[in-house]
Write a structure and sequence with these properties.
With about 375 residues, the protein is mainly alpha-helical. It contains 15 helices and six strands.
Length: about 375
Amino acid sequence: MTYANEYAFGKAKPEGRVPDDLPALLALVALAGPATCGLRALAYTLSVPFIDPNLRHSAGRIAWGFRSLFNTPEVVALVRGMNGAEPYWRRVLEYCAAGCLQSVLDEYMHLLVESEGLIDTPTASASKELADRVASVAGLRTATPGVDWVRVSASGRLTIDNQRARARFAMRYGDERGGEREEAQLRKEAVRAAFNSPFWPFILATTSIGQEGLDFHPYCHAVVHWNLPSNPVDLEQREGRVHRYKGHAVRKNVASLASKNAYAPASRANPWPSLFKNAEKHFDQKSEIVPYWVFPIDDGAYIERHVPTLPLSREAARLPALRHSLAVYRMVFGQPRQEDLLEHLKRTVPEQELARIAGEICIDLEPRS
């Protein structure tokens, strides 16, 4: 580092033979270096020039967060397992290029600018807040949840041993045991912010505390109900956490449409505003719901509901009734899920009456002639 700094100021000259792969290495750094990707993402999202010193400082902060991420034992094992012969720093660059880190940061910062209310914020403050958020979620510390080992001896005696385990890919959302209340609250908010990012944790386990008033939609569109609520309102609340403005399923479909149409966003700008404008052209009528809240396409992503019920259990019998109640509940607001609505009609209306009922409840939005 010292030698590189002296050379940069003209106090020394490089010695020795130029490496044969130097052009490829420089291209790799320019394409996928975390600091370079962070600088481009900030400049394109905030529409400011690259030479802005605040932007460069923020890009360094982002790179420092990635340094913490790639120095964790789990990530080192994963990246080295792909190609252990190369130097680790070189493998990290190749990993960032293969994972298209630039696109990841472009998408994430587009969401952060809106969710954090930074649209009209001065560049210096906005770039600092964006960099701090990326660095904090990338460097989230490991959780150590307890694992209970249940053993039964030959005499029938039951023993339960608790063992602590490191966990990054899946985390618990809720108040941590022990510690001060303020520290536990900060940890909970840090876990939620990290889950709402493209980085880990990728699975969040929570009780009913995460059922209302929280958003988990930025990078999630699947809900696993470990137990079923007693009414359709609570079920709708749970799934509504991942069905929000510019949710994950919506963005996947918007990007898929652009890929199918070979749409190329404007250069030197964050591509996501342009991608949503392209999705708007897919529909004849302008709507605030489509494509920002709902954007279904053929073979596209959707809000997934998973209920791992045990056979012959109480919840296995309750699920069909709850789905029918949910379909009726949504009909009141004019937003039924098509699958649930069809199942409800098939269950309650005779087959020979379906065509007549469909004609009666169909809403004609055409203007009167």
